[in-house]
Fold these 4 entries.
Entry 1:
Amino acid sequence: MQTRVGLWRRMAALFYDAFLVTAIWMLLGFVMLLFIEPNSNKLVEGLVQTDLLLDNILFILMVASSAAFYIYFWTRSGQTLGMLAWRIKVVNLKGNLITPVQGMVRFFAAWPAFFMLGLGYLWLYLDANGDTIHDKLSNSKVVLLPKSSRR
């Protein structure tokens, strides 16, 4: 039986991954500037007004790129780069890699779990197996790998 991972190790891996996702978002912003006029923002009465369509396009690209980042790594190796550093891995309930559908459920359930005061993450303290809400919804678990598993 593999040991489930606690909150602090999960948050540390998420913090590591936040740097990578932020870099991807910065690259997206730069690429968008290549296709739109840099002066599309206006200063009106001391407030910056942006184009609503461009804002929505950028938001959709940010969500899609971060979803692609996590789902790609979870389905290929079970680990993002942050998870690799903290020796944790996402697997299905049988211990195999998760499917893309499980990855999508996991990703889109994790956001509300985090932004609702972390209640979805804090659920692991109440759950008998130590799973979060998005673990339950995606039929997956996050396990601790032994120190000898570093590749």
Note: Residues 7-149 form one domain.
Entry 2:
Amino acid sequence: MNEKTNPMLKKYTKMGIIAVAVLVVALIGVFVISKSGKEVKLSDALNGVSANAMDARDLKIAVINMDKIQIDAKVLQDLHKQRADYENKLKAKLEKEQKSLEKEKADIEKSQDVLSQEALQRRVVEYQRRVTGLQRDLSESAQAVEASYQTALSEIQKKHLDPIIEGVIAKKKLSLVIDGRMARIGKDVPQLDITDEIVGALNKKVSSVKMSKPKGF
């Protein structure tokens, strides 16, 4: 099922990691359209607006909780772990470099009475250069990790999650899918939530998508 065959089908947009959102258009107060600096009457502005609307009784609505998918989907669990591994490597590099810098700083302080002013200044400048370089390298590496993560995340959404959601919409002949983070479901209609079905299908389809190696690793 696609937008051409079912105009009620909404496209998906990212909210946090991946989300399915419903576009709600509200008319608040009285809006007028300006033309050549003059206001147009509301009745004229609404000319051409169709009076047709789908009867709510004809709608088939479902809810997907994207937060739960992030937690329960194996492929996303694995992707989060890959990112965490790279972040831990950055943390280890930072701790190692900090120890080295602390040692160098202590050596500079001890040599203040031994070195000439010029030699001491050179060591201070070199120390500051190392600190600045470390900050830059860690920042660039962190950005590279996030970029690689987002690329893999986008692949999961486009190649795996979106087709599954589209398939479920077609199979259940749904009119509307709502992000569960923005919905409240009554106890008497638990069948509205199709999250577990989406997770089950996603787990069958794919369990891992490898992040590309970030620059600097």
Note: The helical segments are 42-45, 66-72, 74-110, 117-172, 195-205.
Entry 3:
Amino acid sequence: MKYRTNPRLLLVAATTLLLIAHASHAQSQGGDAAQNELSARDECLLESTKTAAPETTIGELRAQCDQIFSETVAAGAPEAPNKRMTPVQIRMFDDQVNYNRNFAISAFQPNYFIGTYSTDPNNEPFSDLPSSEDSLENEEAKFQVSIKAPLWRTMFGTDNDLIASYTSTSWWQVTGNSSAFRETNYQPELFLRHYGGPQFLGGRVVAADIGLNHQSNGRGETLSRSWNRVMGRLYLDYDSIAVGLRAWYRIPEDANSDDNPGMYKYYGYGDVMLAYAPNKNTYTAMVRPGTEKGGLELTWSYPFTKVFRVYAQYWNGYGESLIDYNAHIERVGIGIALNDWLQRR
């Protein structure tokens, strides 16, 4: 893979992350582990009492938490009290708690809103449109909404859930003449998740997914971009580090209706994501190798309230959005997020 890099943008991104890492180093030496010393059962009971109906008995709460606990242990959470859960186990545990509530909708991918600057916006797809869209602004807002919900818990009494998810990512020309939404990618998905697994590549398998994924930009004619995939995911736990391995197979389309037949050159057949949460900071890196080109995304986030996190993102490569799948984009942005892939409490 080859990446063209603007030295000033890369210097700003690298310097910012180094300063953040240096400032937060002292926090990683202690303090956060104590917040995770409650056993999974104790934490579940505390959380459940906040949302339970007044008539719910302690016995009913305990039975509910025992079910959640057994499913979380399948993903590798410690059974004994006062054993620290890893960030990925915390994420799995929080999901199980949420799934037992009414209208169980929870975060899937990060939900964020950032202001960005791109050195090389891709004007080519809009060259035949009215002049108001001929020249794109370098400044742009980018935001993502990503949720999931269980459709069938513990299928047939097993450690398997059927889950539906929806993610939309938008690029908004806020400072342009018409403040248009340049691109929005819609991504519904249906997948089966199995919790737990063996040691693999030196880490513990905490979950594995297999399902169907559709992604499109909802446009027609020359701007239409879409594809359907069979997608598999594997999540590995290395204590403060989690690794997500994704692989996909594109469902073939008729050659006459295929809007983007060469996507494999830029998206390839999978990607690798690494998330590192040594303390309240979360760092991620995603590499997506195409067969000819590739894409790289780096992010950092840190909570500044109980609800919001400051969120920074750097992108370099191909395939940031469907409309730009065959165009090189370098972008840096900063804003706020509601969640990240991993986060310590």
Note: Residues 7-38 have pLDDT under 50 and may be disordered.
Entry 4:
Amino acid sequence: MELGAKFWFGIIGGAIACAVAAVIVLLIIGAAWARWGFFVMFLLLAVVLLGIGWIADRREKRRRGLPG
């Protein structure tokens, strides 16, 4: 079974996109750390991740038709 060029270009493109996203996230976290210190950077990261989790939870509840 041959995978073909489209598959490999997709894999390479995905790897490049992940690398760019990782650099952007690390730059944002590093800037927050440099400006506000470790504790506030950690607090900001926790708030952002909790917000993402809350949004995902609400979306899943709505998808399953659960109350709340």
Note: Helices lie at 4-36, 38-64.
